Amino acid sequence: MSSFAATRRALGRVLSARHSPFPGVETLSQALDRVVRTVARNPQEKDEFSTLMKRGAFLPAGRTLLSADPVVKAVIPNCAVVPPTIKAFESFMRHTTGLGTCLNSIHPGSVVSRLEQLCNVPVADATGRKPGVMATLHWAHPDAAALVDAKAANPDGALSNANISLIVPANEWETFRGSPIFDLSVRAAWACGDPGLLLSPNHQTAAATSPCGELWLTPWEVCTLGNLHLPALTNTMGELDMAQVRSATRSATKFLDAVVDSLRFPCLDAQKATAFHRRVGLGVMGWADVLQGMGIPYDSNDALALAESTSWNMRSAAQQESTETGRRHGKEGMQNSTVLALAPTGGTSSLFRASYSIEPHFKDAHSISSNAHLRMLAAWQRHVDNGVSKTVNLPSHATEGDVAGVFDTAHALGVKGVTVYRDGCRHAQPLAVGTKANCEECVAI
């Protein structure tokens, strides 16, 4: 496949990370062989997974790609949700796994100091690079304002590796909207990109997410992620082929379920929680590339219709595969409690030189209205059973009123979470329009 030769240099950079069993010496093809030998549970799966990935239709998330070790048949988790304790963070940060945690249980007056402690748990990493953290807090917690203020006052300080999101249950929106914490959140998001909002359904039992918000998890669960490479699933006319999408989705869902069986857990609690839910998250990359190839504007109704059709077909095929897998294992119903989740795909996208997840091309990001970003998010979210990680990019001249409008529209459209980023609002901007990401943390996702 031509993209292999084009991406070997990118893979070399990725595999220079310490998690690769063979740093800096693998081609992409060799890395995928290593992953398949680690994960496949039988010869049939080995052939199926190898074919899926070597045709360029799918890649596992970065941590799976980097850490898969066929000698011990083990994979390090991409990320996890844990209680907000030093001990829990230490157990996972030995692997620099990205972590989510809910701070609701922390005593008022202690939330900010506790999060600073958690974000600075020592990491067994010669580079000193800390993993990403998603800290969630109910909007009405007495410390909500203090937490938002702490991040906004010094976004590149002690909480620089933490994303902050306020949990807003659907039946509390109007109360939240009329409260001072809403206005504070708008001002802070305008200033530094935090907090985001987690617009929780009333029945939502999970109160924390993976670091980028695409997976809602219960305490001690780890996440298993991978992504379809949509440009590889087009026909000779360059149109997205739903038969190929469904076939690749089924194989990818089976692959992710096999990864669950290969995970190396730092503690028994994580093993039990993950085995109970077997939650996986299949996402996509190259969405903007497909739209461009089909001549469909990102902010058009045709693009929204294709997004809904694609996500519906993916969910249908993934649930069908999960149900059949469950039946083979003597289980009634689906093998996996959720099957779809759209992660950012930063590092893995670069291996195929694909656009990130469902984001527009960077050169177009600020020419697309915030409403168009949100409508695309909602179109995908409609059939995604877990979350969608998507940032609503705003130009530098956007106002606080624009940010409030994004939050209002996100609630009205029924999305599960929303984050805004105003161009230039952070001194250490993670991504600039017209550039590609060069962030190791993205590789881990």
Query: How large is the radius of gyration?
Result: 20 Å
Low-confidence stretches: 1-20, 432-445
Helix/strand structural class: alpha/beta
Strand order, sheet with most strands: 9-2-3-4-5-6-13-12
Beta content: 5-15%
- Kindly give the count of domains: 1
Quaternary structure type:
single chain
Per the CATH scheme, the topology name is Anaerobic Ribonucleotide-triphosphate Reductase Large Chain
The end-to-end distance, rounded to whole angstroms, is 24 Å
Tell me what you see in this structure.
This protein is an alpha/beta fold. It has a single domain (1-445), classed as Anaerobic Ribonucleotide-triphosphate Reductase Large Chain, CATH 3.20.70. The chain is 44% helix and 12% strand. The chain has helices at residues 2-14, 28-39, 43-54, 62-67, 86-93, 111-119, 144-153, 173-177, 180-192, 242-262, 268-277, 287-294, 301-328, 346-351, 362-365, 370-381, 400-413, 440-443; strands spanning 58-60, 79-81, 98-102, 133-138, 162-167, 196-198, 208-209, 216-217, 222-223, 225-229, 281-285, 391-394, 417-422. The strands form 3 sheets. Strands 9-2-3-4-5-6-13-12 form an 8-stranded mixed beta sheet. Strands 1-10-11 form a 3-stranded mixed beta sheet. The longest helix has 28 residues, at 301-328. The protein starts with a helix and ends with a helix.
